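This section describes the prediction task in plain terms. A model, or a person checking by hand, is given the sequence of a single protein chain and must write out its three-dimensional structure as a string of tokens. No templates, partner chains or ligands are provided. The sample shown here is typical of the held-out split.
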Amino acid sequence: MDWINLIIAGLLEVVWASSLKYTEGFTKPIPSLITIASLAASFILLAQALKTLPVGTGYAVWTGISVVGTAIIGSLFLGESRDLPRFICISLIVLGIRATA
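The expected answer:
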């Protein structure tokens, strides 16, 4: 169950990181609520997962899911770069996470 909590926490981090752009400095209520709610849920699930998982592994996986997921969302929906060097670097992060987990 801890790994499931960790994966969901990582996915929720993608949600809050991606929705943060739409808050416009927390002046837009709906995106702000989505950001704050997903941030809180992500932290809570991460904390639950870390009750039994090693902190280094849990944090690496949580941030790795966020980095990769947010980069994909940015590329597909936010008009961010899709160049090869960017995705090579992201791939190296994934390889690092695999080595850590």
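For orientation: The mean pLDDT is 91.
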